[in-house]
Design a protein that fits this description.
alpha+beta, 13 strands, 221 residues, hypothetical protein yedk fold, 5-stranded mixed barrel, globular, 5-stranded antiparallel β-sheet
């Protein structure tokens, strides 16, 4: 699964790829993004052009009777997206890119689980495949998203059996393109197994969503 992420530098290389302004007004470094908090995403809406938007992490589908289910739907499994009608519609029409420069997994069992921070070489930004939706109810409009997970690669599988779908820049462009067919989108939801994916152990300081500082990503020595 993917239950926490980080984005402590503006993802300039990705923004430039989608011809978006590299300067994000009000951008604040985040080291411990948790469910129900905003994820910086790129989506296509209205005119079909890429747009940068914060979406609340935890999908609330448009058909939901209330918004409380969002806290439980932070991830969407790649193997069921195309088979369940509610998810398949989002896979066709509402794909998005969730921007990050790292994500956390917890390895081990029980109360002794150890947090591990995954990142690309040089802490470069990357895009995680996601889906999004708009919910209206109780006089409120919510734009929310879920991160798609897939089977872990051999490297990531040493720590957890699932991992988020990490996309190359070319893959991210295909994923966001509204003309990309569902069959191709399914192919893109593959485990990321390039050698530039790295990880290291961090302290349990990251366990609390209230903690959001560089200490969250500091290696345990």
């Amino acid at each position: 699964m993917c239950g926490r992420s980080s984005l402590h530098d503006a993802p300039v290389s990705i923004l430039e790829r989608f011809q978006l302004p590299p300067v994000i007004p009000g951008f604040k470094p985040r080291y411990n993004i948790a469910p129900t908090q905003d994820q910086l995403t790129i989506l296509c809406d209205g005119d079909g052009k890429p747009a940068l938007r914060p979406l609340r992490w935890g999908l609330v589908p448009s058909w939901s009777l209330d918004h409380t289910m969002g806290a439980r739907m932070i991830n969407a499994r790649s193997d069921t997206l195309a088979t369940k009608p509610a998810w398949e519609s989002l896979l066709r029409k509402r794909r998005c890119l969730v921007l990050a420069d790292g994500y956390y997994e917890w390895t081990g069992t029980g109360k002794t689980r150890t947090p591990v921070f995954f990142h690309l070489t040089g802490h470069r930004p990357f895009a995680m495949a996601g889906v999004w939706d708009v919910w209206n109810g109780d006089g409120t409009t919510l734009e929310t998203c879920a991160v798609i997970t897939t089977d872990a690669s051999p490297f990531a599988g040493r720590y957890h059996h699932r991992m988020p779908v990490l996309l190359s820049l070319d893959g991210a462009e295909e994923w966001l393109d509204e003309s990309t067919r569902t069959r191709r989108a399914i192919e893109l939801m593959a485990p990321y197994d390039d050698s530039d994916l790295e990880c290291y152990e961090v302290s349990r300081y990251v366990n609390s969503p209230a903690n959001d500082s560089p200490d969250c990503i500091a290696p345990v020595t």
